[in-house]
Amino acid sequence: MKLTKVNILIVTGLILVSTLLGGCSTGQNQTLGAQTIKELNLQEAENLINNDDNLTVIDVRTSQEYTSGHLPQAINLDYRSGTFNDELGKLDKNKVYLVYCQSGNRSQKAVDIMKELGFKEVYNLSGGITQWGVNSLPIVK
Fold first, then answer.
1. Residue 120, SS3?
2. Residues 6 or more apart whose Cβ sits within 8 Å of residue 68
3. Arithmetic mean of pLDDT over the chain
4. 130 is a domain residue
5. From CA 106, how far away is CA 109, in angstroms rounded?
6. Is residue 4 part of a domain?
7. Is residue 34 part of a domain?
8. Residues with catalytic annotation?
9. pLDDT reading at 71 higher than 80
10. Helix ranges restricted to H, the chain
11. Helix, strand, coil share (%) of the chain residues, nearest 5
12. What are phi and psi of 44, to 5 degrees?
């Protein structure tokens, strides 16, 4: 095949498009350079809580929801508050974080923000505290 300027442009364009599309992830688990962003099931989350001394657990529900029952040693940063991003900015981006809410929706949005802010290792609890409680795992009131 004779390489013309048009052929070279087409091949270059295809390589660029495949590179860009290859960088997009449709799965729940992502490792981006030095970042690890992952959704954990209950067993994985419980294992992380019991075995990682560098872990901070973040409950992103409202303070009323937090008070009604939360995971042991969780801190409360309300996703819906006007200061949520500022509060995240005060956290050490090099620590390990497990984020949860009631069902997993707010926590996934919080994890997305943390990813954008450059946090290195963030996990989302699949199913939130609802699944945690259904499986009779410890809840602090």
1. coil
2. 141
3. 83
4. yes
5. 5
6. no
7. yes
8. 101
9. yes
10. 5-22, 42-51, 63-68, 84-89, 105-117, 128-134
11. 45, 20, 40
12. -65, -40
Instruction: Say how many C-beta atoms besides its own lie within 10 A of residue 121's C-beta.
Output: 20
| Pair of tokens at residue 46 | 């419980």
Using alpha carbons, select from 140, 103, 110, 132 the residue that is nearest to residue 43: 132
- 99 found inside a domain: yes
Domain interval for residue 119 = 28-134
Q: In the chain, how many domains are there?
A: 1
Give the model's pLDDT for residue 31: 52
Angle at CA 106, nearest 5°, toward 100 and 107?
30
Looking at residue 30, what is its pLDDT? 53
| Pick from 113, 36, 103, 35: nearest CA to 81 | 113
In percent, the amount of the chain with pLDDT more than 70 equals 77
CATH code of residue 78: 3.40.250.10
Q: Which residues pair with 23 in a beta bridge?
A: none
Q: At which residue do the structure tokens 């729940």 appear?
A: 28
